[in-house]
């Protein structure tokens, strides 16, 4: 089975006159492959949240369903690291679609077979599996990005690719609603047809998995092309050395990732970036309704605007890090996190009765926070050899999800319940400041210069 995932071997180089046209065609093709494929992963990430009202009506409590839902964040955070170590030694063309199909199968089982939503324990196991397979999306995408796009363009390209999760997350809800309408009252399904929130997105995801398989190519060398550094004359060092050797798991972990102080720095930064991201996002509806008098309709609009404002913000952040700071990601991270801090302060101290200001603050926070989210993953790719990129990004994801997301949900709830919203906002402001300081530590660090020093 593991032979199926082996990296695609290099083949004889194409004639020189064919290289430029083939490179341009395949760069667009593989980028579309990982964009479509990763967006499709998000069709299967949050479905359970939409099914929860229907499951509550069946007798499950909010606490039980919340416990089941936590399985996705826990397993996804672990898997993003563990599966990344496998992905770095695998063919992205096979690895990304395989994870997507496996995640879709889990979703289909939950929709089609009543047994798989019959108890909290079974739902926890299924959602844990789904989160695990979801962890197979980011690492192969990172492998493709570092092999097909060179250092001085990678910020912009990674930012554009990163928008895939906003696109996939935005499409999921209407697709799930359509699924409910299709399966309502159909023989073998409940009267409400809630099973459709699992079934229709899963079927669409399988189609996109097939599309991604046909679009993605593992490395330029596997299709007879030179390395991206040679093609664009954009080398990580003056010696014009590229790092193309496939590495063992031991080398990836202990030579390039776990002993790399810069990877650890951004992994810790990710805890605070994710804490702010989800501390604001997940608690916005509750805070706005309790403190600012928003109704559910207004709160849902605020949630929507927060997410979609992240698209232009991410693109701008990637462009700034490439063009203004010449491949240094730290300065852009500092600028954006200071902006987030200011917006959080205004959001906090804006008195009730000014809903427009609250909305604008949430748009500003959404616009600014997704840039640093993207930069952490990008720096992980920059700070290690290409063959270790997924593992480095997986380590930062592990810290972000387990340290940031889980804390944002659990700790914010405990702190706000015990000491009020001011205490919660104090945590958010401190987190913004800490993230900005850690980004500042990487101010003068440019991409693969770290790798050069490790050889």
From TrEMBL:
CDD domains: MFS_GlpT
Biological processes annotated in GO: phosphate ion transmembrane transport
PROSITE patterns: GLPT, MFS
Family statement drawn from the similarity comment of this UniProt entry: Belongs to the major facilitator superfamily. Organophosphate:Pi antiporter (OPA) (TC 2.A.1.4) family.
Record's keyword terms, sorted: Cell membrane, Membrane, Transmembrane, Transmembrane helix, Transport
Topology term for the membrane: Multi-pass membrane protein
Example GO molecular function: glucose 6-phosphate:phosphate antiporter activity
Coarse class of the protein's main subcellular location: membrane
Regions that span the bilayer: 26-44, 64-83, 159-184, 196-216, 262-281, 301-320, 332-350, 356-378, 398-418, 424-445
Classification via SUPFAM superfamilies: MFS general substrate transporter (SSF103473)
InterPro entries: G3P_transporter (IPR005267), MFS (IPR011701), MFS_dom (IPR020846), MFS_trans_sf (IPR036259), OPA_Antiporter (IPR051337), Sugar-P_transporter_CS (IPR021159), Sugar_P_transporter (IPR000849)
GO cellular component: plasma membrane
Protein name: Glycerol-3-phosphate transporter
Residue ranges of domain Major facilitator superfamily (MFS) profile in the record: 26-448
Pfam families (UniProt xref): MFS_1 (PF07690)
Record carries keyword Transport: yes
Cell compartment(s), UniProt: Cell membrane
Keyword Metal-binding: no
Natural source organism: Paenibacillus elgii
């Amino acid at each position: 089975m593991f032979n199926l995932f082996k990296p695609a071997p290099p083949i004889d180089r194409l004639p020189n006159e064919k290289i430029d046209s083939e490179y341009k065609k395949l760069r667009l093709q593989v980028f579309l492959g990982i964009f479509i494929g990763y967006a499709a992963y998000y069709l299967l990430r949050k479905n359970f949240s939409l099914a929860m009202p229907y499951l509550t009506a069946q007798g499950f409590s909010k606490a039980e369903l919340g416990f089941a839902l936590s399985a996705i964040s826990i397993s996804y955070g672990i898997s993003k690291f563990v599966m990344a170590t496998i992905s770095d030694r695998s063919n992205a063309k096979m690895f990304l679609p395989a994870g997507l199909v496996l995640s879709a199968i889990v979703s289909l089982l939950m929709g089609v077979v009543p047994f798989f939503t019959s108890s909290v324990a079974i739902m926890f196991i299924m959602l844990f599996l789904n989160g695990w397979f979801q962890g197979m999306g980011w690492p192969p995408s990172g492998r493709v990005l570092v092999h097909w796009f060179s250092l001085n363009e990678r910020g912009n390209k990674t930012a554009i690719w990163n928008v895939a999760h906003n696109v996939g997350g935005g499409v999921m809800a209407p697709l799930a609603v359509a699924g409910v309408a299709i399966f309502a009252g159909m023989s073998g399904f409940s009267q409400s047809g809630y099973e459709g929130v699992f079934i229709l997105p899963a079927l669409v995801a399988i189609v996109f998995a097939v599309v991604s398989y046909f679009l993605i190519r593992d490395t330029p060398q596997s299709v007879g092309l030179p390395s991206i550094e040679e093609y664009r004359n954009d080398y990580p060092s003056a010696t014009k050395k590229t790092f193309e050797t496939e590495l063992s798991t031991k080398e990836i972990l202990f030579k390039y990732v776990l002993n790399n102080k810069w990877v650890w720095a951004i992994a810790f930064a990710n805890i605070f970036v994710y804490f702010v991201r989800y501390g604001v996002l997940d608690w916005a509806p509750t805070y706005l309704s309790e403190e600012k008098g928003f109704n559910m309709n207004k709160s849902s609009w605020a949630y929507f605007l927060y997410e979609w404002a992240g698209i232009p913000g991410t693109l701008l952040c990637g462009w700034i890090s490439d063009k203004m700071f010449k491949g240094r990601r730290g300065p852009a991270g500092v600028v954006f996190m200071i902006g987030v801090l200011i917006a959080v302060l205004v959001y906090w101290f804006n008195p009730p009765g000014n809903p427009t200001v609250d909305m604008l603050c949430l748009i500003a926070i959404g616009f600014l926070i997704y840039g640093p989210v993207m930069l952490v993953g990008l720096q992980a790719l920059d700070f290690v050899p290409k063959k270790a990129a997924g593992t480095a990004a997986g380590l930062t994801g592990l810290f972000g999800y387990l340290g940031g997301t889980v804390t944002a949900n659990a700790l914010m709830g405990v702190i706000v319940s015990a000491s009020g919203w001011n205490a919660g906002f104090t945590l958010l402001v401190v987190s913004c400041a800490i993230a900005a300081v850690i980004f500042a530590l990487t101010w003068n660090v440019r991409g693969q210069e770290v790798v050069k020093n490790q050889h």
